[in-house]
Design brief:
It contains six helices and no strands. By secondary structure, it is mainly α. Helix 1 runs parallel beside helix 3 and helix 4 runs antiparallel to helix 5. The N and C termini lie far apart (about 50 Å).
Length: about 130
């Protein structure tokens, strides 16, 4: 009697993990920014320790790396366009405006990079990432 009850509970827990994994995957598929992806990782942090859920969600992490690569390309394009004629804030000298734009672009690159460094998933720490 105990063995059948235990087996039923284990099966029910595994089914629950698969369902949670599919919900997490759907959430990651609908993410449209890196910031939202990292918030999603934080919100599922306790559940990502479970192997079934981690396997399902781990397949979505390379998509975040692709989003970061796209973000880097956008920052590079912005930097190149700002180099010749920077858009400055009102009453800001040319040099100060250029420094401010460079600092903002650097923050836009460094923020996600530091977030990637917090997580130990192979997709975030591989040579491709």
């Amino acid at each position: 009697d105990f063995d059948t009850t235990y087996t039923g509970i284990v099966r029910m827990a595994a089914d629950f993990d698969r369902r949670l994994g599919s919900v997490a995957c759907q959430c990651f598929e609908r993410v449209n920014s890196l910031e939202a992806g990292f918030k999603l990782i934080v919100s599922f942090q306790g559940l990502l320790d479970r192997p079934d859920i981690a396997d399902d969600v781990g397949a979505q992490y390379p998509l975040m790396v692709e989003m970061y690569e796209h973000e880097l390309d956008m920052v590079k394009a912005l930097f190149d366009s700002q180099r010749s004629h920077a858009i400055l804030n009102k009453n800001m000298p040319q040099t100060a405006g250029a420094l401010k734009v460079a600092a903002e672009l650097r923050a836009r690159v460094d923020g996600p990079r530091l977030e990637f460094a917090k997580y130990s998933h192979p997709a975030f720490s591989s040579a491709d990432a």
